[in-house]
Amino acid sequence: MSDLMKAVRERRSIRKFKSDAVPKELIDKIIEAGVFAASGRGKQAPIVIAVTNKAFRDKISDENRKIGGWDEGFDPFYGAPVILVVAAPVEIPTAVYDGSLTLGNMMLEAHDLGLGTCWIHRAREEFENGFGAEILKKAGISGDYIGVGHLALGYIDGEDPAVIPRRERRIFYID
């Protein structure tokens, strides 16, 4: 089995992270995998914003928690010290698809580097309710963007989740 296929089979969403900082060099490698994702018409439209500042990371978490309807104190990023925010310009018709591929590539690279990830939703709502503008401003970005997703990133606290068998009757051929 190839290294890629091994990563595809073994990568799982992590819901408990250590608070240990992730070195910038590893974050950069993960983002590089994301920006090399396929994109509609080769536009390379998605952007990735790495949030390592704890106070701002916690602010994003609290906004996400409110949108999700959870009680105060719940962290929808499961303690991950890094949040990678993926967004794309609103005028790109393939923004959500392109951003999804970006997130997928980053999840696989993080796994290969020994880090855990979990795709966290509600980025769309953050950008629609105006909080996304604050994220963009903090990163020095202007323009209209759609939030695609977040990637909680960090070192796994505990064991890797087990690989579960794949459901049957999901592959079909028309010969």
Description:
The chain has 175 residues and is α+β, with helices and mostly antiparallel strands. The chain has a single domain, classed as NADH Oxidase, CATH 3.40.109.10. Helix content is 39%, strand content 16%. The chain is built from six helices and four strands. Helix 1 packs across helix 4. The chain is globular and about 50 Å long. The two termini are 27 Å apart. The mean pLDDT is 97.
Going by CATH, the architecture would be 3-Layer(aba) Sandwich
- Give a short account of the largest sheet: 4 strands, antiparallel
Q: Regarding CATH, which class? A: Alpha Beta
Number of spatially distinct domains: 1
SS-derived structural category: alpha+beta
Shape: globular
- Gyration radius, to the nearest Å? 16 Å
Strand order, main sheet: write it out: 1-2-4-3
CATH superfamily: NADH Oxidase
N- and C-termini, Cα separation: 27 Å
Relevant terms:
175 residues; alpha+beta; NADH Oxidase; 4-stranded antiparallel β-sheet; 6 helices
Short description:
This protein has 175 residues and is an alpha+beta fold. The protein is built from 6 helices and 4 strands, in the order H-H-E-H-E-H-E-H-H-E.
What is the element layout, followed by pairings?
Layout: H1 3-10, H2 24-35, E1 47-51, H3 54-68, E2 82-89, H4 95-112, E3 116-120, H5 123-128, H6 131-139, E4 145-154
Antiparallel strand pairs: 1-2, 2-4, 3-4
Helix pairs in contact: 1-4, 2-4
